[in-house]
Write a structure and sequence with these properties.
This protein folds into two domains: 2-186, Bira Bifunctional Protein, Domain 2 (BirA Bifunctional Protein, domain 2, 2-Layer Sandwich), CATH 3.30.930; 193-239, SH3 type barrels (Roll), CATH 2.30.30. Helix content is 24%, strand content 34%. It is built from five helices and twelve strands. Strand 10 (217-220) and strand 11 form a beta hairpin.
Length: 242
């Protein structure tokens, strides 16, 4: 894997996508930046980070055509790779909040953005963006955001964390199988009653019972009926402003 370090960039995902278009020299590249001016979350949302305090990185993995994976399958694997990386750093109470957030002690410390590279309709590679709050302590008006430092009281070196994360992501994405049972075990709110808001602003409570193969969240209502939601069609009210 080729490792690249940048001081500042608009977006590490955008940098890697442009790199891939210009060269085919590597099938695994990891790039991180001290600061991103236009870091992205899913569906065009912004990722806010203080300069030099957090891990802002992207990993390109090519030559995955034969693996026949979906984007959400890769998303699950990346989330598990992040849990592996943070568990080794003794970060407590790690969970995955559907569809792409990483929690510690019920607070958001990270997020994932998987952008496919297609040849026709076939997935041939991915650019995986990861943001992890490492040493930042101030989150302004984001009460459910936190960091590794805020939770443990210890500062962390970002460079070795970046290298470990990139290697774990490559290993997990290229593995022959997905550990779906472990993903469900780590899923925030599984078999618990949670409060939600639909896109039409209506509020309701339901129990999370799983995630469908296409990535939709499956919830059960009081009358035992089930409903499935695509990402951005449903908001956890506790994390509405995080």
């Amino acid at each position: 894997m080729l490792f690249i370090k940048l001081s500042a960039i608009d977006s590490t995902n955008a940098f890697l996508k442009q790199w891939v278009q210009q060269t085919k020299a590597h099938d695994a590249i990891a790039v991180r930046a001290d600061h991103q001016t236009h870091g992205k979350g899913r569906m065009g949302t912004k990722w806010h980070s203080e300069n030099n305090l957090n891990l802002l990185c992207s990993i390109y993995l090519g030559d995955i055509l034969h693996h026949n994976k979906t984007v959400f399958e890769i998303n699950k694997r990346v989330c598990l790779a992040i849990l592996d990386t943070l568990t080794a750093q003794h970060i407590p109470k790690l969970q995955i909040k559907w569809p792409n957030d990483i929690l510690s002690a019920s607070k958001k410390i990270g997020g994932v953005l998987v952008e496919p590279i297609l040849r026709g309709k076939k997935l041939t590679g991915v650019v995986i963006g990861c943001g992890i709050n490492v040493n930042q302590l101030n989150f302004f008006e984001l009460p459910y955001a936190s960091s590794m430092y805020a939770i443990t009281g210890e500062e962390f070196a970002i460079e070795p964390l970046f290298e470990d994360l990139a290697k774990n992501i490559e290993r997990t994405v290229r593995a022959s199988t997905t550990d779906n049972s472990r993903y469900l075990d780590a899923l925030y709110g599984l078999n618990e009653l949670c409060n939600f808001e639909r896109t039409d602003r209506t509020l309701f409570s339901a129990t999370i019972v799983g995630v469908a193969n296409d990535g939709k969240l499956v919830v059960k209502h009081d009358d035992n009926s089930t409903e499935m939601f695509e990402e951005k069609k449903l908001i956890f009210t506790a994390f509405a402003h995080c």
